[in-house]
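In this section we turn from sequence analysis to structure. A common task in structural bioinformatics is to predict how a protein folds when a small molecule is present, because the ligand can shape the pocket around it. The inputs are simple: the amino acid sequence and a SMILES string for the ligand, here NAI. Study the lines below before reading on.
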Amino acid sequence: MSQKMVLGIVGGHGWMGRSLGIALLERNILSADQLVVSSRSGASDAYCNWPDVRCVRDNRELAALADVIVLSVRPQDLAGIDIGDAGKGKLIISLLAMASVKQVAHQLGSDRVVRAMPNAAAKIRRAWFPWFAAEGVNPSERQLVQELLESCGMARELPAERDIDYLTALSGAGPAWPALLAKAMLEHAQTNGIPDDIALEAVMQTLVGGSQLLEHLGSDPGDMVERLINYDGTTAKGLSEMINGRLSDVVKHGLDAAHRAACSPRK
Ligand SMILES: NC(=O)C1=CN([C@@H]2O[C@H](COP(=O)(O)OP(=O)(O)OC[C@H]3O[C@@H](n4cnc5c(N)ncnc54)[C@H](O)[C@@H]3O)[C@@H](O)[C@H]2O)C=CC1
Ligand SMILES: O=C(O)[C@@H]1CCC=N1
């Protein structure tokens, strides 16, 4: 990464902003003096291991210092973001759900906008981080975006902005879906008399191991379901009951609701 490039993260002390900032520092993609972060409440201890990271309250100051600006506030705070003229023409990477390229461009005064969608696994650098760039973003900037976002896991450019709205529901909110499955499995194990610590370990290890197996196999997850149905053992009995109970419809309705929410305030 160019020694000269300075990245500013508006909301850099929050959940996503700090996950990105710390990943960039820990992976030596940026040095501490290349990072400036803003927060409404001033410095936190998030960057205490990197005293050269500049922490500011004023987003105009951040925009004046930064070459590239990451926007990582909650969607409802977008209307209050003021970077003045300093942001004009600068590359903006917005992590916001529910805010279009057009809205971000209007609020920040730059039409060189990338929309990127992290998820909570950015904290452990296992996020899947899709992004979409507006027309004005040039190829070398696209390469830069890919490199910055890959610090948190895997990043991928998308061909259409509408895909970001969809993926906000699928992958942006995604870590919540296995959490809900884990909760249901845990409650069931406890109801069946398994001690709490053993039940929790069983659920976590099963979901993590099962996910890693799917990743390792790299095939359509439906293949494993079909193979286990054909095996015709205990798993098949459980799968049949869940399939007949329309688990897949419940999941689809949930994703539809999250997708509608991701699209709702778009203009
Ligand atoms: N948390 C998640 O799992 C995901 C979040 N996102 C998106 O990421 C964005 C950030 O979300 P989180 O990090 O979860 O929120 P957060 O609430 O943890 O962090 C936002 C930070 O922005 C700061 N802030 C608010 N207004 C500010 C201003 N005017 N100037 C400077 N800082 C300001 C807040 O004090 C806070 O520290 C949201 O727009 C959300 O839609 C996207 C995918 C997943
Ligand atoms: O729940 C939310 O609105 C944010 C965006 C996607 C995941 N978390």
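The chain has two domains: 7-168, 176-263. As an exercise, try to locate the residues that line the NAI site and compare them with your own expectations.
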